[in-house]
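Need a sequence for this fold. Nothing fancy.
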């Protein structure tokens, strides 16, 4: 099984990354793919959180498990396979890359396929926008990681991975057009029950 995740930022509105990863790979593999693509300093601590649809944290995947006491809510990234924790359509995750200011990327599962499409995984299959600065210094008021603005994320935009503009390009999804860009490819998870807001 190959899982496709979309990453968005609440700081940079045109930032989009689509990452495909095999189910038997780990959250550490996912972490490394993000770090490498965004040219982040790998010496900085980061973590994933599994969340509900309101972005409320449920389980944390950490870089290093230094605890002597088992903790079911905190799991080392390299011990957590994607397929063991991503069970629901549109599963949401938060990737905290700046723990000092609790800044993050917001992630949603957008597709799952049985067959590999690439020779190497994880694979960044769509890239748009500049990466947010990894670490912010000083007393900047950036709000809270969970706020009302995050409810406006639209993970359902369609992108054309065959478009050639450096990395794969974006389909035209302007509000004044009525074209249907829905993806008819078969997938493991159906979007029929999607209640999230869509561009019209």
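Here you go.
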């Amino acid at each position: 099984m190959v899982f496709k995740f979309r990453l968005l930022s609440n700081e940079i509105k045109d930032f989009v990354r689509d990452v495909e990863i095999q189910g038997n790979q780990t959250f550490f593999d996912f972490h490394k793919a993000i770090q490498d693509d965004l040219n982040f300093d790998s010496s900085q601590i980061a973590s994933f959180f599994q969340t509900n649809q309101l972005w409320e944290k449920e389980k944390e995947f950490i870089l290093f498990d230094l605890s002597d006491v088992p903790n079911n809510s905190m799991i080392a990234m390299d011990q957590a396979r994607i397929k063991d924790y991503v069970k629901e359509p549109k599963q949401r995750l938060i990737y905290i890359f700046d723990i000092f200011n609790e800044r993050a990327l917001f992630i949603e599962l957008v597709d799952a396929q049985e067959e590999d499409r690439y020779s190497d995984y994880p694979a960044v299959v769509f890239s748009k926008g500049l990466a947010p600065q990894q670490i912010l210094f000083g007393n900047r008021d950036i709000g809270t990681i969970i706020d009302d603005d995050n409810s406006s994320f639209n993970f359902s935009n369609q992108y054309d991975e065959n478009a050639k503009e450096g990395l794969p390009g974006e389909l035209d999804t302007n509000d004044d057009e009525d074209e249907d860009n829905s993806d008819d490819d078969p997938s493991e998870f159906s979007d029929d029950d999607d209640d999230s807001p869509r561009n019209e």
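For context: The radius of gyration is 17 Å.
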